[in-house]
């Protein structure tokens, strides 16, 4: 790969969200899907067919009574290219999609961002319990498979992670603390959030 690279990207995106709350939803569904094609001369990348990227996320909310909500989520990002530039590789970690980099995928138990393989598919189950109208406890369990090729998906060890969080929904946004662990980093992490995430 060249030392300095510049990319031209074509992309299409679908975004749907009818959840009842941006941070602590109890009803509704959220879905997004994106396709991107990366080139360095409007047509090809390094004199080969360009890099194809497909990403998607589907999350649904299932209220179980007045306080408990289950939120299953499926998500992933698939990159098709022989020698993917590091800047376009999958990255997992943190609490939010695209927080530090566009291709960042959240993963329970991973606090910092971690570079991953070209193809990654993950599932997360979140249990959200409303202690009061603005105090929440969240438990997340996540699992993922990844690899440079689809054949590698089940040859590698599954990535597993979990986190436990407490949040107060304040006028300036969520204030809370998350503790987590995963077999990706094999260490305990904590994350403190104060206010809205931009």
Q: What report would you give on this structure?
A:
The protein is mainly β and 198 residues long. It has strands at 8-17, 29-39, 44-45, 48-49, 51-60, 62-64, 68-80, 91-92, 104-105, 114-115, 119-132, 135-147, 159-170, 173-182, 189-194.
Summarize the SSE layout with pairings.
Layout: E1 8-17, E2 29-39, E3 44-45, E4 48-49, E5 51-60, E6 62-64, E7 68-80, E8 91-92, E9 104-105, E10 114-115, E11 119-132, E12 135-147, E13 159-170, E14 173-182, E15 189-194
Parallel strand pairs: 8-9
Antiparallel strand pairs: 1-2, 2-5, 3-4, 5-7, 6-7, 7-11, 8-10, 11-12, 12-13, 13-14, 14-15
List keywords for this structure.
198 residues, mainly beta, ten-stranded antiparallel β-sheet, three-stranded mixed β-sheet
End-to-end distance? 33 Å
Sequence of secondary-structure elements: EEEEEEEEEEEEEEE
Shape type: globular
Radius of gyration, rounded?
18 Å
Give the biggest beta sheet. Answer: 10 strands, antiparallel
Overall number of strands: 15
Structural class: mainly beta
Tell me the strand percentage band: over 45%
Are there runs of 5+ residues with pLDDT below 50, and where? none
Level of helix content?
A: under 10%
Helix tally equals 0
Mean pLDDT: 93
């Amino acid at each position: 790969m060249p030392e300095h690279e510049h990319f031209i990207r074509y992309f299409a995106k679908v975004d749907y969200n009818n959840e009842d709350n941006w941070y602590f939803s109890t009803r509704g569904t959220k879905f997004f899907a994106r396709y991107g094609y990366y080139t360095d001369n409007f047509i090809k990348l390094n004199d080969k067919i360009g890099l194809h990227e497909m990403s998607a996320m589907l999350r649904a909310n299932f209220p179980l009574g007045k306080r408990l909500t289950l939120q299953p989520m499926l998500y992933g990002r698939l990159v098709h290219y022989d020698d993917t530039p590091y800047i376009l590789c999958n990255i997992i970690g943190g609490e939010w999609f695209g927080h530090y980099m566009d291709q960042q995928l959240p993963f329970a138990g991973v606090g910092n961002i971690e570079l991953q393989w070209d193809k990654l598919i993950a599932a997360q189950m979140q249990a959200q319990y409303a202690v009061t109208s603005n105090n929440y406890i969240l438990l997340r369990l996540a699992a993922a498979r990844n690899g440079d090729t689809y054949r590698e998906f089940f040859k590698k060890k599954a990535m597993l992670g979990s986190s436990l969080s407490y949040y107060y929904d304040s006028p300036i946004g969520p204030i809370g603390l998350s503790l987590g662990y995963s077999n990706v980093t094999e260490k305990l992490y904590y994350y403190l959030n104060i206010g809205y995430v931009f």
